Structure to design on (350 residues):
C-alpha cells in the first residue's frame, strides 16, 4: 500500500471479524515499530505480542476502553527499557520515542490490511501495573500502550481530519 | 512508495543538498501529521511550516544539534493546543499524540523522496521558549519538536534496526 494512502486513511479500528493473524504478520508489525527513531539512537524499544486468548481476556479486565481486544484477538504492547532510554524515566523522551514506534505499528497494520487501535497504559499507573503483572514485565520495562490488532470488518471508514486552519507559515497566525 | 519500505528504510537525514521544496509538498507533510490519532480524538495538532531563510537561521541559534536545518532549509514544528488536548499539559497524552504526528511527517517525507530529522524542543524549556519566541507562538500552544526537512544528498543510508531479542510472545522473557 502506498505510504501516503496508509497515513491518510488509517483510523482507529474497533470492529473486528475475530479471525486469527499469522505470527509472521505480527512480527512485521513489531519490526515496523522498532524502525522508529529513538532519542540518541538508544533503541530502547520492546514489543510484547499477545495472541493467547486467556491473556487477551485478562488484559481487558484492567484496561478501560479495551473491549475491542476481545474481537481483535491480538495485542502488541509497546514498551521502553528505561535503563537504556535517553533520560530514563526522568524525561519523556521515552514516551516520544515509543509513541512514534506505536504509530509505525498502526501504519504497518493498515498496510497489511489489518486494523489496529491504540489504548493508553502510561501515564495511568493502575493500567501500567495491570499490563506489567498480566505479562510478567520487569520493573525497568515500562509499557506505553496496548495496541489491539485484528482483521477489520470494514465498517470503520476513513475520515479526513485535515484542517488547514491548523497550519501556519513561518510564524503563528491566529485563525 | 510502499508503506513498509518507507517505515523500514526511513532514517534521520542530516545531509541535504540545500535545494528548495515546493509548498505543496510541505503542506502534504502537515496533512500527514494531522492524520495521526489523538487521545479522545481531540485533534489538537498545529503545524508551523518554516521556509524563510532568516527564521531558519534564528531557530538554529537556540537549538543544539540543529545545524542540519541550515542546509535542509525547511522546518516543520509539531505543536499541541494544550487548551484542547485530552488532559491539557497535566498528562503527557499531548506528547504521545504529537510524537505520532511527527512520525507521520517523517514517513511522508521519506515517501516524497525528501529527508527529515527530528530535533526535540519539549521537554527542554529553554528550547520551547526559543521556538515560541522566534515564531510568535502563543502560550497555549506548546511545540514538541522541530523537524528539519530538505532534499537529501543520498549519503545517509538506511540501517536495519531490528533486534528479535526485543520481541516477546505472550509474556516477558529475559534475553
Amino acid at each position: 500500500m502506498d505510504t501516503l494512502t496508509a497515513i491518510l486513511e488509517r483510523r482507529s479500528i474497533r470492529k473486528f471479524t475475530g479471525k486469527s493473524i499469522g505470527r509472521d504478520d505480527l512480527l512485521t508489525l513489531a519490526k515496523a515499530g522498532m524502525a522508529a527513531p529513538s532519542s540518541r539512537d538508544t533503541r530502547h524499544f520492546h514489543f510484547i505480542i499477545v495472541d493467547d486468548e486467556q491473556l487477551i481476556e485478562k488484559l481487558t479486565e484492567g484496561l478501560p476502553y479495551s473491549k475491542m481486544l476481545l474481537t481483535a484477538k491480538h495485542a502488541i504492547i509497546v514498551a521502553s527499557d528505561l535503563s537504556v532510554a535517553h533520560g530514563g524515566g526522568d524525561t519523556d523522551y521515552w514516551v516520544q520515542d515509543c509513541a512514534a514506534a506505536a504509530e509505525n505499528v498502526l501504519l504497518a497494520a493498515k498496510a497489511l490490511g489489518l486494523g489496529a487501535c491504540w489504548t493508553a497504559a502510561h501515564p495511568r499507573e493502575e493500567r501500567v501495573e495491570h499490563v506489567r503483572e498480566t505479562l510478567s514485565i520487569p520493573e525497568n520495562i515500562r509499557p506505553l500502550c496496548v495496541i489491539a490488532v485484528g482483521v477489520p470488518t470494514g465498517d470503520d471508514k476513513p475520515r479526513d481530519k485535515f484542517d488547514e486552519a491548523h497550519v501556519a507559515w513561518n510564524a503563528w497566525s491566529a485563525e
